[in-house]
Amino acid sequence: MKLVGHIVMAAMALFFLSTNMAEAKPKEIIAPLQKVDTSYSKGSLDYVESGILNAEAEKYEAAIADFTKAIELSSDNYFAYLGRGIARIEAKKYKEGIEDLDIFFTFEKDKNLEKELNNPAYYYRAIGKMQIGEKKEALSDFTKAIENAPDEVLLYGVRGELKINLGDYKGAIADFTKAISLKPKKLEATYYYNRAFAKDKLEDNIGAIADYTKVIKLDPVNESAYFKRGLANHALKRYTEAIADYTKTIDINPNAIYAYEGRGLCKHTLGDAKGALSDFDKALKIDPANGKIYRSRALCRSDLNDNRGAVADLSKAISYDPNYASGYFLRGVCRNILGETSLASKDLEKAKNLYFEQKDYENYQRVLEYIRKIDSNPAKS
């Protein structure tokens, strides 16, 4: 009896260690296990114990072999099915692991152990199902695990992440809120971040900013939290606050290309075209093949009356996206200002056709009006 208690305790310890579950207190786990009686052969139990040790050492193939031998010696050893299922999931043999855990659930287990054993089985089967694309089935297993352990922080966190993946952002927010209420020691910043992400998806920028701010207080060098808060401030047209967040992102990571882009866009909106141009220049030094940033820099150059530079940037942008209708339109305008009327005419015609094909009739009309304007009075276009 004591041996079985030790084995299952080790299995549970493996589960808690492997998944970063809340700290399991050995005495709490051992207590119900001491009541267990078993008819398994000693050899079968020895292989289970060896399998657990190999799994703890991340020697999953050796663990699988041990658990298989345990099953051969005692076909009703559900501890062995649980261990082999977990080891197979860890070894990325998801379908085989799920099969083992399915078999594990067919056994009638000691009532004192049922919850303790079922929880890792539900958790790992859910992980396996996620990996093979059975996300809704995985969600069901996480929910069953939560029913068994309603105060287990990690389960809410993982289920919340899965709900984000399934597009259930409100459900994800509820799970992360519950996880946070349970006062997690190590993952609090992660749960605030994930909740903010879900709020972003629901366009709750105010709520997202509050959560990203919590993340930053817990983790002052979290580059992503500053950047995402910058995006939320940007969406709310809080350009000064967004610039501050993008700047902090860059302080943490000088190669944060999209922070340069975001800061440049805010500066441009605030009328600081030169400052914006500088940011776009820095971004393009990091990624010279970023067509989107060439578009933004072209607009700055156009505002600064550098039409030749704008044409060059727009040509780059178009080379990365041949269907960039607005690129042809603006390049046509710049070329017309430069007196390159033939090239301008070709660009404007291309823009007009692309807008029509893309069913962007508002901009289609804008191009037509511009063409009529330069045809009627070319000197003032």
What does this structure look like?
By secondary structure, this protein is mainly alpha-helical. It has a domain of 150 residues: Tetratricopeptide repeat domain (Serine Threonine Protein Phosphatase 5, Tetratricopeptide repeat, Alpha Horseshoe), CATH 1.25.40. The chain has 21 helices and no strands. Helix 8 runs antiparallel to helix 9 and helix 12 packs antiparallel against helix 13. The protein is elongated, with a radius of gyration of 30 Å. The relative contact order is 0.04. The N terminus is likely disordered.
Task: Pick out its properties.
Serine Threonine Protein Phosphatase 5, Tetratricopeptide repeat; 381 residues; 0% strand; disordered N terminus; mainly alpha; single chain; 21 helices
Task: State the CATH topology of the domain at 1-150.
Answer: Serine Threonine Protein Phosphatase 5, Tetratricopeptide repeat
Secondary-structure element pattern, one letter each: HHHHHHHHHHHHHHHHHHHHH
Shape: elongated
Task: Note the total helix count.
Answer: 21
